[in-house]
Specification:
By secondary structure, the protein is mainly α. It has two domains: 200 residues, no CATH class; 204 residues, no CATH class. Helix content is 86%, strand content 0%. Helix 6 packs antiparallel against helix 7 and helix 9 packs parallel to helix 14. The chain is globular, with a radius of gyration of 22 Å. It starts with 12 loop residues before the first helix and ends with a helix.
């Protein structure tokens, strides 16, 4: 079987782009599913059903985002095993992640009824929307084991620098989801349950396809000893995943808090924030492609013990990410008005979004450094630093909100988000020298 990692001296921009471009394309397909579900259910002309699907899919996404460690942790550990040429550990990383995914999915399914009822009570939507949301979620949760297993598979493929496999798997999943949503909702008349069932079928179909994609790589490792329950490796896996989960929950809290506090400024400002957050999220999806490249190439370098390759990976991925961030920000500044007009016909919302556009346009520039540092720290599996610095950043975000919003209102809320990004980058940058020392010792 060919080596997973190129020699340090051969690492070039094309190695970064070979990972980043498929990941950017893969990320870009993710919002299409939610858009397609809403468009299909929207044909039923019932606002409660539209709201139920939107709310149900949002709750589902937020819940499963907390298990993003199955993607991130698997990528870092697998990339390091690939860099070290440890084929047994490459195989074991996938099996361990799949075991955790299936177990976590079963637990989520077991507790989903009280969880969704409590969440709906806290949100306080209308009874019609709550009914539709509960119906959607009750079906969608059946995909829990498959959804989490797909996270593990995608993380494993990325860790092996097989970004194209991740792209094809994501395209397959999303295409199946969209086609079945049309069939179940419009042709079979299954309503919100049909939209949820389409997602369930798509996740299990993608899991089957992903396992088939993984088979040739696993067969190539045949004969390599994979110690699935080796105590030291399993302890490290739990520590890495636990750190990433805490970090992700803090990140989720910031974005949820941002949305909730935006509602305090009125419906128009809330709607304007939602429009601009969609643009900001799109930029994050794009820039994450280079963070993924950093995860893989940094992980390989750490596994191989190559400080030269590590520094080249950090430099090349960060230069490309920084350049792209400037282009995205320029596109928002120059074309943001057109995008806002396309996204909402409401004149009051447009005017409010126009006024806030400069703040949203700054998010790619403010966020690119922390995205890249996240990728570097994940690749090096320095997840305790990620956890600790995220907690610090959350505290600073809340302090900035308390100081800025009384005087500046919604602009203060956006400024607090930019401060959050900046603090994430600054605190991780302070820990960067320690990362190099821990990863490469006397070579630094």
């Amino acid at each position: 079987m060919q080596d997973y990692a190129p020699p340090a001296s051969d690492l070039k921009s094309r190695d970064v782009l070979a990972i980043a471009i498929p990941m950017i394309l893969s990320n870009a397909t993710v919002p299409l599913v939610g858009f397609a579900d809403l468009a299909v259910v929207g044909q039923l002309n019932d606002p409660a059903l539209i709201g139920g699907v939107s709310l149900g899919s949002t709750i589902f996404s937020m819940l499963f985002w907390a298990f993003g460690f199955l993607r991130m942790g698997t990528t870092g550990l697998t990339a390091q095993a690939a860099g070290a040429g440890n084929r047994g550990e490459i195989t074991a990383n996938l099996y361990r992640a799949l075991l955790i995914a299936v177990a976590a999915g079963a637990v989520l399914f077991a507790v989903h009824v009280p969880a969704i009822l409590t969440t709906l009570r806290l949100i306080g939507a209308s009874s019609e929307v709550q009914t539709a949301t509960a119906a959607y979620f009750g079906v969608r949760i059946m995909s829990a084991p498959a959804t989490l297993a797909n996270y593990a598979l995608m993380g494993w493929f990325i860790g092996l620098a097989r970004a194209k496999l991740t792209l094809w798997l994501q395209l397959f999943l999303n295409t199946i989801n969209i086609v079945l949503a049309v069939v179940f909702v419009l042709l079979a008349g299954r309503g919100v349950e049909g939209a949820a069932l389409a997602a369930v079928c798509a996740e299990y179909a993608a899991l089957g396809a992903g396992l088939l994609m993984a088979l040739p790589l696993l067969r190539a490792n045949k004969g390599a000893r994979a110690e699935l329950f080796e105590p030291k490796a399993f302890k490290r896996l739990i520590a890495v995943n636990g750190d990433i989960m805490i970090r992700t929950v803090c990140l989720m809290f910031v974005f949820t808090y941002f949305a909730a506090q935006g509602a305090r400024f009125g419906d128009v400002e809330l709607a304007a924030n939602s429009v601009l957050r969609n643009l900001s999220d799109l930029s994050a999806f794009v820039l994450d492609g280079f963070a993924f490249a950093a995860e893989v190439l940094v992980g390989q370098a750490v596994g191989a013990g190559s400080l030269l390759k590590f520094r080249k990976a950090v430099f090349l991925s960060s230069v490309w990410a920084g350049g792209l961030a400037l282009l995205v920000a320029a596109a928002f500044f120059s074309g943001g008005l057109v995008l806002i007009q396309f996204m909402t016909p409401a004149l009051a919302v447009r005017e409010a979004a126009f006024a806030l556009l400069p703040w949203a346009a700054l998010t790619p520039i403010a966020g690119v450094a922390c995205f890249q540092l996240d990728g570097i720290f994940i690749g090096a599996t320095r997840t305790a630093d990620m956890r600790n610095m995220m907690i610090v950043s959350l505290a600073v975000f809340l302090a900035a909100y308390a100081l800025l919003t009384p005087a500046f209102g919604n602009r203060g809320l956006w400024a607090s988000l930019l401060v959050f990004y900046a603090v994430r980058a600054a605190t991780l940058a302070l820990r960067y020298p320690a990362l190099e020392r821990a990863s490469f010792g006397k070579a630094v």
